[in-house]
């Protein structure tokens, strides 16, 4: 009787894990629950590891079940945690991606002397990357401190800034790509007219060849991570959690539309590509899967540890990404978790031409 229950448990574990592992393949537009079920993938990986040790302790042949499931879905383990050694090959160019949160211009983020603003600008200028992809960029040419394009272009003379809107002071919000090398052409992937989320690109003439670098910022989740983390399940907290749930649902549907447009644009690129920026989705999402289908993820090749990029109270979120053309080789990757000026950590990757 006990053996029957054990085998039924193994069958149930197999079915549930296969269903959950398949969720990133499904567009939230056709089945929006897929985005939430996909979030259970790390939990399922832990369950499989624990199942293996349990059946190994029992000396039961069923220990092969979690082993096979983990091997079949090895790519999901690589998206969760990875370890890589240093490469002996020297990188030929590097890209830094950083969501700079408008240089902390708003009062709730800034201190009296705007010291973190100065630190962000100083860090960006000293990054030594060849290309900078900055999301949530802010520039006010009339302000001494926030005349950020002027300040950064002293180190990076070539840039493409795509403005989304202006405030009453004349400050411009948007996204920017800075480069040490000439930009031959540039443009943007329009997701929706009037949307603050977009993807821009620049065709950069490197010494070896021209590379198209995309700077993406897909639909924001707009979720207050502090409220979720501190929720104590009273009525007020439940309401906030439900609101966050709906925001995530709408966000993941919008991101699925945006990533489909982005992937089509990438496929039509005449040059090798690097796609960098704020994905606003975890590695177990349809958004990540679509990019993974056509590109190589830099963290998975040369990252170490969990690669957490969200500097907030929701743990182990890796939502900032760098993907590259399969004809490029990832030489290095680093999550700069010591740079804590905004709610994102910068990520930097080095590349070589194959």
Describe this structure in words.
This protein is of the alpha+beta class and about 350 residues long. The protein folds into two domains: about 1-80, no CATH class; about 95-354, Endonuclease/exonuclease/phosphatase (Deoxyribonuclease I, Chain A). Helix content is about 35%, strand content about 25%. The chain is built from eleven helices and twelve strands. A six-stranded mixed sheet has the order 3-4-2-1-12-11. A six-stranded mixed sheet has the order 5-6-7-8-10-9. Residues about 225-235 have low confidence and may be disordered.
Overall number of structural domains: 2
Strand order of the largest sheet: 3-4-2-1-12-11
User: In DSSP terms, counting alpha (H) and pi (I) runs of 4 or more, how many helices?
Assistant: 11
- Please provide the ordered H/E string of secondary-structure elements: HHHHHEHEHEEEEEHHEHEHEEE
Mean pLDDT: 91
Instruction: Assign a percent range to the helix content.
Output: 25-40%
Rough shape? globular
Summary of the model, kept short:
The chain has 354 residues and is an alpha+beta fold.
Question: How would you summarize the topology of this molecule?
Answer:
Layout: H1 2-22, H2 33-38, H3 41-57, H4 64-72, H5 74-80, E1 93-99, H6 115-125, E2 131-139, H7 148-152, E3 158-166, E4 172-179, E5 183-189, E6 198-205, E7 210-217, H8 225-229, H9 235-267, E8 272-278, H10 286-294, E9 296-297, H11 298-302, E10 320-324, E11 328-335, E12 347-353
Parallel strand pairs: 1-2, 7-8
Antiparallel strand pairs: 1-12, 2-4, 3-4, 5-6, 6-7, 8-10, 9-10, 11-12
Helix pairs in contact: 1-3, 3-4, 9-10
